[in-house]
Amino acid sequence: MVNCSFCSGVVERGTGTIYVQTDGKVLNFCSNKCQKNMLKLKRRPRDFKWTMEYKKKER
Question: Residue 41 domain-assigned?
């Protein structure tokens, strides 16, 4: 199992999306929501309450 590159949630085996950038960096996404927020909208995970990054920032 791998963690999502945006929300840090668990990506179950056989699900999710793998995206490889041109520089060779591999990004794993649990949902289309996470993929669009990171790649298309260029948002930061620490700004959204539903991500683990935001929850880490609160502490």
Answer: yes
